[in-house]
Design goal:
By secondary structure, this protein is mainly α. Helix content is 58%, strand content 7%. The longest helix has 37 residues.
């Protein structure tokens, strides 16, 4: 287990569609065998298998792996505790996303009002 004080800044995720297991290992500071194990333990984590049964991960998978890593190594959850936390977040996540979209829409309307000249009618 990592020391929370040793939680170094993870590198930014490049704008690629697919990542190999070794790339994800470097991006998330987790060994490849741990990633393979987590695929068995976390149903939401599913790699795409291509060419010779090689694993490829998408951007959302890398974000999920970082979240799992944080739950296990930084916050100190067990595997089952982290799995339950992700399930709870998945159920409540829709409400959170709807609220975030509402706030974003309101903010964009405010920016639009500031940028629109006073005499011009909205379409």
């Amino acid at each position: 287990m990592l020391d929370p004080g040793d939680n170094c800044e993870l590198p930014p995720i490049p704008g690629k569609r697919y990542f190999t297991i070794s790339e994800v290992s470097e991006l998330c500071a987790v060994k490849p065998h741990v990633l393979r194990y987590w695929e068995q333990e976390f149903p939401k984590l599913q790699s795409v298998k291509r060419r010779g049964n090689r694993r490829y991960y998408q951007h959302h998978d890398v974000l999920l792996i970082r979240e799992i890593r944080s739950l296990l190594y930084v916050e100190g959850f067990t595997i089952s505790g982290a799995r339950n936390r992700l399930i709870q977040e998945g159920q409540g996540g829709r409400d959170h996303h709807a609220e975030a979209l509402t706030l974003l829409t309101e903010g964009l309307e405010e920016v639009r009002a500031l940028l629109t000249p006073a005499g011009v009618a909205r379409s």
